[in-house]
Amino acid sequence: MPTFSQVRPPATDEQLAALEARIGYPLPEAYRTFLRTTNGGRPNPIVFSIKGKWITEGHVNVFSSVDPADPHHYIHRDLDIFGDEIPATMLPIANDPGGNLICLSLAGETTGQIFFWDHDTSEDDDPFSWCAPDLATFLANLTPENLDV
User: Where are the alpha helices (DSSP H) in 27-125?
Assistant: First the structure.
């Protein structure tokens, strides 16, 4: 499991309820637990696998929090910015250094699964690529960056 730096205070029940009210879906229990303990921050290690057409790995920059005192990595800010670009069933929970998103699926057969959203995808292609069956697996599979390349 990764360690985290720059974490925020644990999410409160009120913050979690406000996020669920805004998105219109219940948060998967694993993500609720993550917000109650880590509530955002920078993971170490940072590399994750992507089952995409062009990209096979990504790097987590920072996980968003539900703490309004964290204006740059506040999940409601991410929803304001990307709400018109991603479906309501995908919750942006983290980003990469290039401004792409790591999203949590909130509905359907993919509920709880983790996807990578590539903002440079053409309109004809699906911008989402599968990463992990759930948040715990995504976090457990993070690996160190190979700086020898």
Answer: 29-37, 75-82
